[in-house]
Amino acid sequence: MSASPAPQSVPASAAAPGPAAGRREVAAHREAVEDLLRTWFLAHPPAHESIALGEAAGRLLAADVRAPGNLPPFTNSQMDGYAVRTADLAAGSRPDGIPGSVRLAAAAPIPAGSAPPPLLPGTAAPVMTGAMLPEGADAVVPIEACTPDYFVPAGFLPADGTGSTVEVPAETPSGQFVRRAGSDISAGAPALPAGSVLGPLQLGLLAALGLDRVTVRARPRVLLLTTGDEVVEPGRPLGPGQIHDANTTLLRSSLEEAGAQVLRSRILADSPQEFTARLRADIAADAPDLVLSSGGISKGAYEVVRQGLAAADVAFLSVAMQPGGPQGIGTVEGVPFLGFPGNPVSSLVSFEMFLRPALTAVTGAPRPRTEVQARLTAPLGSPAGKHQVRRGRYTAGTVEPVGGPGSHLLHALAASNALIPVPVGTERLEAGAEVTVLLLE
Amino acid sequence: MSASPAPQSVPASAAAPGPAAGRREVAAHREAVEDLLRTWFLAHPPAHESIALGEAAGRLLAADVRAPGNLPPFTNSQMDGYAVRTADLAAGSRPDGIPGSVRLAAAAPIPAGSAPPPLLPGTAAPVMTGAMLPEGADAVVPIEACTPDYFVPAGFLPADGTGSTVEVPAETPSGQFVRRAGSDISAGAPALPAGSVLGPLQLGLLAALGLDRVTVRARPRVLLLTTGDEVVEPGRPLGPGQIHDANTTLLRSSLEEAGAQVLRSRILADSPQEFTARLRADIAADAPDLVLSSGGISKGAYEVVRQGLAAADVAFLSVAMQPGGPQGIGTVEGVPFLGFPGNPVSSLVSFEMFLRPALTAVTGAPRPRTEVQARLTAPLGSPAGKHQVRRGRYTAGTVEPVGGPGSHLLHALAASNALIPVPVGTERLEAGAEVTVLLLE
User: Fold this and answer.
1) In this complex, do A7 and B151 lie within 8 Å of one another by their Cβ atoms?
2) CB neighbour class for A147 (10 Å; exposed up to 12, middle 13-18, buried from 19)
3) Tens digit of pLDDT for each residue in B56-107?
4) Which pLDDT band holds residue A163 (cuts at 50, 70, 90)?
């Protein structure tokens, strides 16, 4: 533990650039965070990485992908049945309108995965779903529409499968149950646009196109710092006045869920000099896209981040939000910096209200949160001048507040699956009131 | 490639156990899949694994977790301010109702992460958010309510921080801005129930409780097989009549997203003998909880799964769904077996309609799909007797059908984010009709 630094006076009025009231609105701060990241990534676009398809779930496609070949690669049958030449069937049409049929000689069966010989006039070839249509064939008659309506077992035929006949309907349109080569996507056509989130469906298409690797955008690189002399890593014993670090786990897993790569996560003790020196060294070593700290930014006497970055291009301000009011934003060594408050609930709410939406907007991060309308099951009070963010449990159109407003209530947070914002100006919401909640899962 | 096996006759009527019409309803098959897995996991509950917190995102808690200690671990301040003994303040109360105040001697500041000495009567100690309250103190007066309303810089005071005074409001209730030890959760109380999905919020609570490892349920172990002489791994060149394997990628990434572990994924050629021999060997080697195959189960002449498992306890039947009608279900060597059809769209729809809901219901798998109401932007036709499942793009209350009904249309599937079920009996839905769609993300 470092020696305690000198307490520092921070008069309230000097701390808050922004609107006259000294507090920045939630929407304005969200926009500022988005601008900060947008400016950075415009100048420092993510690198491209070629990775195996099996490793690419949740990643973002780096560039447009065009189909390297036709899909399907060859014209094939959509049904189990007989491939026919429809020109052969005209003879079976009856002028009286009664459905006619034609008897054709059965050719050798076409299994999937083989190239069949051309279909001779007057013959029909057994063909299975997905198998290549022989040259000359232009339609498939499903086995159920043929007589006999099953494939004759091999034991009853000569070894080449020929020698029997099959009766098929005369009114079989050309093209019936035929999947043309390239009918799903043709060679050279756009398959997936740059920025696509690669889920099972997109990965399935790339596999079908024969690709076993894919070029994705490098994940945003985040240097994550937790501060505080009182903070101890989970798994280690606590001394007097100490607490275990929840922020590193909360923010690391949230960042990873939103597609970021956490390069380093550290607990830094409360010495501004040490904080600044290590931060500079880590930035030089890791080349992060974002430095995110928690703790040490409000108006107490020991605010290591605020004191350590006093000379940096970072504003420490107050956002009209509760929890999560104190916020730091700016750049350190030219790299985007965000300082979240140290209470775990405050840091998580800051992530969901500011950083996740910015990552989604700027980098196309996967898993954006969704907002839904819900009815409160219990009344909620809120300070008039604050955008209060309460935690709750959403179930089928209703939301039940969980725990109080306290920013240390991690147990209640862990039982929640939604944030309930109560905007500035609303001091009370009754049970049954309709609110817009942010789903956390 | 194996030698082509003999075509086998499979008269349509013999293939479909179940209702009189020969087709099983979608809901009945979903229930059968759930029953199959439930029976297995009741007899073979998942093993417990102790893993690091950083590896546990998305995993399921194996057993109830109780708090090993109080949270917060000690009584601390909710604000930056002065810790006071409210008994000292009574002297400042005024009988005329005008707010009174009391001047107290300033004690040494209490930084976070240290154990302060007891608070002497008549004194007030500067205390920062989260710092331990000294013995004797029973309330915190926020710095903004004090005179002076900032912490006096150390340079202006003796080294021990004493010697100045602070004026605090007399009407300060006992307990104000005090977070009691155990007020979030008390030692021994239930913190998280068995089966909880471990997201950032739950992991944050475990970290705050000092835990760096967590005991989770082993993931369901799935042996994944793709069949077909015509199927080639992505990255390898195609011969005539061959296609690249999309099913392994589609199903593997879907299974992993739903919390399963894919032990082995293999493309097996079209020899029933080889299929059965390798399946038995893999089951013995891998001890899977589920065998999932795609392809080889319908009524063609070359149906390797159906032929290979003819002697096993597996039913091959027809579900009134399109795509995904042919389905295999049963056990092989006592292990649950599901056979999906070979067309990629059919296999994905089978996963979403049958296997994902069963995994959610039986194992508590993360990321269940959600259903939402949406208005169709274009009309849809559907066969009367089938539960047709079309693909579409959901945006803000509307859903646009993407691609036709064809089960080979992977490009359209990859542009979709929703399934649009059109139930049995509905032959046409007009533009503007309200449908219940299954969101795929």
Assistant:
1) yes
2) exposed
3) 999 999 999 999 999 999 999 998 899 999 999 988 887 787 889 999 999 9
4) low
Question: Do A321 and A226 fall into the same domain?
Answer: yes
**Number of structural domains chain A divides into:** 4
The residue in chain A having the minimum alpha-carbon distance to the alpha carbon of residue B151 is A9
- Residue in chain A closest to B142 (alpha carbons) equals A300
Question: What percent of chain B shows pLDDT beyond 70?
Answer: 92
Partners of B234 on chain A (C-beta within 8 Å) are: 53, 206-212
The distance of B16 to chain A (nearest Cα, Å) reads 15
Domain harbouring A127, CATH code: 2.170.190.11
Residues A432, A357: one domain? no
What is the residue-wise DSSP string for B263-299?
A: EEEEEE-S-HHHHHHHHHHHHHHH--SEEEEESS-SS
- Report which secondary-structure segment, H or E, holds A124: strand A123-127
Chain A residue numbers touching B154 (CB-CB < 8 A)? 6-7
CATH at A61: 3.90.105.10
Please tell me the predicted confidence (pLDDT) of residue A155. 56
Q: Is residue B194 part of a domain?
A: yes
Confidence category of residue A127, pLDDT binned at 50, 70, 90: very high
Interior/surface letters A101-110, b for 16+ CB within 10 angstroms, e for the rest: bbebebbbbb
Domain boundary among A299, A328, A363: A363
d(CA B225, CA B347): 12
CB atoms A12 and B209 under 8 Å:
no
Statement to judge: residues A266 and A303 lie in one domain: yes
To the nearest whole Å, the CA of B392 is away from the closest chain A CA by 12
Q: What is the mean pLDDT of chain B?
A: 90
Span A352-405, pLDDT tens digits: 999 999 999 999 887 788 888 999 999 998 887 888 999 999 998 999 999 988
Residue A1 has what pLDDT?
35
A253 and B203 in contact by Cβ < 8 A? yes
**Interchain CB distance below 8 Å, A72 and B411:** no
Structural domain includes residue B5: no
Average pLDDT of the residues in A74-79? 94
Specify if B28 maps to a domain: yes
Backbone angles phi, psi at B310, to 5 degrees: -55, -35
Question: Is A208 in the same domain as A270?
Answer: no
**Of A177, A342, A170, A357, residue with least CA distance to A258:** A357
The domain of B386 spans 371-439
> Are A239 and A282 in a shared domain?
yes
Residues A309 and A284 occupy one common structural domain: yes
Summarised one tens digit per residue, pLDDT across range A94-111 is 778 788 999 999 999 887
Q: What whole-number distance in Å separates Cα of residue B107 and Cα of residue B74? A: 21
Nearest by CB to residue B301, choosing from A128, A270, A440, is A128
Q: With contacts defined as CB-CB under 8 Å, which chain B residues touch A244?
A: 207-210
Structural domain includes residue A113: yes
Nearest to B308 by CA among B324, B326, B328, B334: B328
Contact A262, A294 (CB under 8 A): no
Q: What is the mean pLDDT of chain A?
A: 90
